[in-house]
From TrEMBL:
<dbReference type="GO" id="GO:0006338">
    <property type="term" value="P:chromatin remodeling"/>
</dbReference>
<feature type="compositionally biased region" description="Low complexity">
    <location>
        <begin position="24"/>
        <end position="35"/>
    </location>
</feature>
<dbReference type="InterPro" id="IPR033388">
    <property type="entry name" value="BAF250_C"/>
</dbReference>
<dbReference type="GO" id="GO:0048653">
    <property type="term" value="P:anther development"/>
</dbReference>
<dbReference type="GO" id="GO:0035060">
    <property type="term" value="C:brahma complex"/>
</dbReference>
<dbReference type="GO" id="GO:0031491">
    <property type="term" value="F:nucleosome binding"/>
</dbReference>
<dbReference type="GO" id="GO:0051783">
    <property type="term" value="P:regulation of nuclear division"/>
</dbReference>
<dbReference type="Pfam" id="PF12031">
    <property type="entry name" value="BAF250_C"/>
</dbReference>
<dbReference type="GO" id="GO:0045893">
    <property type="term" value="P:positive regulation of DNA-templated transcription"/>
</dbReference>
<protein>
    <recommendedName>
        <fullName>SWI/SNF-like complex subunit BAF250 C-terminal domain-containing protein</fullName>
    </recommendedName>
</protein>
<dbReference type="GO" id="GO:0005654">
    <property type="term" value="C:nucleoplasm"/>
</dbReference>
<feature type="region of interest" description="Disordered">
    <location>
        <begin position="1"/>
        <end position="35"/>
    </location>
</feature>
<dbReference type="GO" id="GO:0048366">
    <property type="term" value="P:leaf development"/>
</dbReference>
<dbReference type="InterPro" id="IPR011989">
    <property type="entry name" value="ARM-like"/>
</dbReference>
<feature type="domain" description="SWI/SNF-like complex subunit BAF250 C-terminal">
    <location>
        <begin position="205"/>
        <end position="236"/>
    </location>
</feature>
<dbReference type="GO" id="GO:0009793">
    <property type="term" value="P:embryo development ending in seed dormancy"/>
</dbReference>
<dbReference type="GO" id="GO:2000014">
    <property type="term" value="P:regulation of endosperm development"/>
</dbReference>
């Protein structure tokens, strides 16, 4: 089975096509509409944009809702492929795309559960054996000569061939027989385990499903359904938790899904009364996010930083993230020192939201080693994206608003003055910072009393 959600080639005149997007989707609204029409079998579509045809009817979302769900649940290879190809097209939607066949999840009852079933089936066979339940110990008849369970023959070696004892010598001379112990009958894999080809097909189906779920998360009308579906969130966080064993593309799709849903996501769903399919708690979800943040893969730790910044906007999530704030700050400050501009932007975006939570967060950030130095460096360099520099200056202004932080920031007074005179875009912000540090009467009295005695 060929992978249906791989990277597609775009035309030479536009930006490269995104992963899982139909051919020609990023070359403009006209080309996107033409490519979409070609994908759903529109006879009026230009032949130049027709790639591998998916043969999806234009009215499929209205006429075949039940068939899509049943095809995913059937376990038949051809049916699953047809459903995944159809959903890949139906779940795709660009901002300037006016296709009529993009389908929200609310129109297809049971679709999200059917998609998650495909991922669950893959994870059931992909999980290492040492994580499975150990085999049951058979004690019935253990002390008898014939137990009835074949225990007396465990040490014997059986041949897979059907040769008789009279012809055994001839067989050994002509060919090599495959031999195994009788204990293979009690192997956890059983007689109907998947071969390598079957495992690869299931893995590709799971990746295709993750791409479809990711596409659905871009649609605002799907946010409420997905963040209230506990099985969906449990599956997503479990894939992040198993980042070292799962497929990279599947983990990336799940992480991007979370980033899209983060503004409306409430972690308290893991302690709600809704039925749970996977043992996942709020603490486990935060641990999975921290694992992605500490990853050395740039797209993963950048997305995790953005995810934390969006999650903490919701006051209900603060209590779960505040215990790991020191680790978050340490990692975000490390990202600020990276030469990659996107890593710096992700770290600044997260710090901008986290620093506004409460006073304790601002105190911890100011006391973090190299935090203020690296924030100032982003403004002085400067970062190529003006919005990142603006947020950085706002972070510094929020830090100086706390009296306990002023001694940490007075060390950089000359740097503040230099930026004030050289960077016109942010002069107002740094003027307010310098005023907070040096010009207010309360500051003069405090510093004068500490160094020269009370000179007021």
């Amino acid at each position: 089975m060929q992978k249906q959600t791989g990277k597609s080639g775009g035309s030479g005149g536009g930006t490269p096509a995104k992963r899982g997007r139909p051919f020609g989707s990023t070359t403009g609204s006209g080309a996107a509409a033409a490519a979409a029409a070609a994908a759903v079998g529109d006879p009026g579509a230009p032949a130049a944009l027709v790639g591998p045809s998916l043969q999806v009817l234009s009215a499929l979302s209205d006429q075949n809702n039940k068939r899509i769900v049943l095809a995913l649940q059937s376990g038949l290879k051809s049916e699953i492929l047809w459903a995944l190809n159809a959903l890949t097209v139906l779940s795709f939607k660009e901002k300037d795309d006016f296709r009529r066949d993009t389908t929200p999840l609310a129109k297809v009852p049971g679709l999200l559960d059917a998609l998650l079933q495909v991922i669950d089936e893959w994870r059931d066979i992909a999980m290492p054996k040492d994580h499975l339940k150990p085999p049951r110990v058979r004690t019935l008849g253990a002390n008898t000569t014939l137990s009835g369970f074949g225990q007396e023959n465990m040490e014997k070696v059986y041949s897979d061939t059907g040769t008789t004892s009279n012809d055994q010598s001839k067989t050994e001379e002509s060919s090599v027989t495959k031999k195994r112990s009788a204990s293979f009958w009690f192997d956890e894999d059983g007689l109907f385990n998947n071969d390598d080809e079957g495992r690869a097909e299931r893995q590709q189906c799971a990746i295709a499903v993750s791409n479809i779920i990711r596409n659905f998360s871009f649609m605002p009308e799907n946010e409420t359904i997905m963040v209230q579906h506990r099985h969906c969130l449990e599956t997503v966080f479990q894939c992040l938790e198993d980042q070292n064993r799962e497929d990279d593309e599947l983990v990336t799709n799940m992480l991007e899904t979370l980033v899209n849903l983060a503004p409306v996501l409430d972690l308290r769903i893991f302690s709600s009364s809704k039925p749970s399919f996977i043992k996942m708690t709020e603490k486990g979800a935060v641990h999975a996010i921290m694992g992605m943040l500490s990853s050395s893969v740039k797209p993963w730790h950048c997305a995790a930083a953005e995810l934390i910044g969006r999650l903490i906007i919701n006051p209900d999530n603060e209590s779960f993230l505040l215990p790991v704030i020191p680790q978050i700050y340490k990692r975000l400050v490390d990202l600020l020192s990276m030469p990659a501009y996107d890593a710096q932007a992700a770290a600044v975006s997260a710090l901008y939201n986290v620093a506004e939570v409460n006073m304790d967060c601002r105190l911890k950030l100011a006391s973090e080693r190299w935090a203020v130095d690296r924030l100032l460096k982003i403004v002085k360099t400067p970062h190529p994206v003006p919005e990142v520099c603006r947020k950085t200056s706002m972070i510094l202004e929020s830090l100086v608003s706390e009296p306990q932080n002023r001694m940490h920031l007075l060390v950089h007074e000359n740097t503040f003055a230099e930026i004030l005179t050289t960077e016109g875009k942010y002069s107002d912000t740094f003027a307010r910072i310098l005023y907070e540090l040096t010009a207010r009467p309360s500051n003069k009295g405090t510093s004068g009393q500490a160094i020269w005695g009370n000179i007021n």
